[in-house]
Amino acid sequence: MAGCCPRSPRLFLHFLYPSLFAPNGISRPSLAAAISSTRCTRRSSTEASTPKDESAPISSHLNPAPDDYSMSYFADKAKLTIHAGAGGHGCISFLREAFMEDGPANGGDGGHGGNVYIQAVHGETSLYKLARRKIVRAGKGKSGQGSSRGGQRGEDVVIAVPVGTVVRELSRNDPEAENRFLSRRDRRRKKAQTLAIEEGPDGEPVEDADRDKWLLYPGMSSSDKRRMALPPLPNRDRLLQQPKEPVHLDLSRPTPRPILLAVGGLGGLGNPHFVSKGTPKPMFATKGEDAVSMEIELELKLLADVGLVGLPNAGKSTLLRSISNSRTRIGNWAFTTLQPNIGTVVLDDNKGRPMLTSYHRVSDAHPSQNYPFNVSPQQPELERRTRFTIADIPGLIEGAHLDKGLGIAFLRHVERAGVLAFVLDLGAGNAVKALKALWHEVGLYAQMREDEERERQRQAAIDWSAAAGTDAEDATFWPSNMAGDHGAPVANAGGLHIAGKPWFVVATKGDLPGTQENFNELREYLDAINRRKEPHPSGVEGAWTKDCTAIPVSAIKGQGVDRVVHWAVGLLDG
Ligand SMILES: Nc1nc2c(ncn2[C@@H]2O[C@H](COP(=O)(O)OP(=O)(O)OP(=O)(O)O)[C@@H](O)[C@H]2O)c(=O)[nH]1
Ligand SMILES: [Mg+2]
């Protein structure tokens, strides 16, 4: 193609035909178009001579060209190291004015370090940015200054995460909490051990463990510094209570206010705080406190009303396109979809009138009674459903639990869906076998999650924290419904009992010849489940076996898909 349209002649057109390029009313783009059409005449004529392939599929919204899709960066896991800000140091300063040589102490206090918060907000859809960011730091407090000027407070940081994020603490470093827990004498012993300092005649280590928490006047000689008697460190409480270890939050709803994760260090005290009868001119101030740092793991479980589960190439994405506004990628090969997609199904007749009447509980979405934040629901109990969301995930294959294909980890995005829709390709072999294989993988996934959760709860039952046994509670910042290890167990909130969810089958590619028999067999199998003659395909006792149905569709032609919407809404309404 490049050979038939050489670039060089175009470069000389200005010189050969200057009038063509003069600003005489013909715009450059139209001229350029004229040129390109002339230049490509040869190609067009050759194309025209070849007969058009009539059988080639015409691309449309439901049968798009391979490059007709939209994709955004997506990550559903992220590990973050968060550092709250350290406090600024207190200042050692004395008033100096004309005719006043020896003024009083006037060193300002250091600013407190910034805190790190987390908040689940609508509008965030992925953990991608956080996964790349890796480290989050709140601002450090500025040191105090002379003339009693306090240091500026460190800036707080709010980590915005999508609704549906689970937060787990992996490790924590809280030097101040450890110090508070140990007695002064123990701290001294510990420091002596680490520094290998000799013990004094009274058996006490010579070095005071708290000495490095003090700032001494820089103008003093080192021997004076060593000899200087320092008062006991003042006992100060943090402005906010550091949440108990380990943090475990299930942010399945937007959080009205940011939730505290790590508290910044207190700012140091300036020298006026230490003025006493014996020390009218204190040559010392305290340093700012070290702050808490933590390693946390974020896991996003998308919250869609309906989750599509199917083998690769079954037609899940085509189905999603046919009923929602999604522009997910479609291709005639396995694993076209590599990350979850959410589509919104709008329940109107394209003229703004409702397509069907459906209601959902508002209290589910705004469980204000569980929040300590005083958010009272203004909405009525039931609200008309105008839309619902549907999640399309990468295809599952047999043995996905053994990490075959893309594994089963993506099932976390349908784990919380209200309804599961199993998408089966009627043209790809026995549909009953495919359904059983899918349920087998889903069942194994549920089992794996439950084991994980049990292990986590067992670990959480052990109190590793230094403050174990103390009754420091952090109720102010911990909504009981969110704190996995502080309130209700997250396992129940996560709804791991997947087999108990309402489900149905969407039998796709019904337009292909010879699929009727396969569909009939599938329908008979589902009828047998409804009549309790066959067990639930997952094999779980007491699983959902009410009205299991299969809806035949041709998603590519948009036929039968309205029934899928109606059925899904019916199941969502319960
Ligand atoms: N004939 C016919 N073809 C369909 C139908 N639905 C989807 N297809 C085709 O099946 C192929 C796979 O469709 P996708 O929607 O990408 O399948 P998928 O389940 O999302 O595949 P993965 O993303 O790989 O899991 C595409 O070539 C579609 O055009 C249908 O109803 N009839
Ligand atoms: Mg797909």
UniProtKB/TrEMBL annotation:
GO aspect biological process, one term: ribosome biogenesis
OBG-type G domain boundaries: 304-573
SUPFAM superfamilies the UniProt entry points to: Obg GTP-binding protein N-terminal domain (SSF82051), P-loop containing nucleoside triphosphate hydrolases (SSF52540)
Membrane spanning residue stretches: none
MF annotations from Gene Ontology: GTP binding; GTPase activity
Keywords: GTP-binding, Nucleotide-binding
Coiled-coil residues: none
Residue intervals of the Obg domain: 72-303
InterPro entries xref list: G_OBG, GTP-bd, GTP1_OBG_dom, GTP1_OBG_dom_sf, OBG_GTPase, P-loop_NTPase
The keyword Nucleotide-binding belongs to this UniProt entry's keyword annotation: yes
Domain of life: Eukaryota
Region (Disordered): 41-63, 170-211
Official protein name in the record: GTP-binding protein Obg/CgtA
Highest classification ranks of the organism: Eukaryota, Fungi, Dikarya, Ascomycota, Pezizomycotina
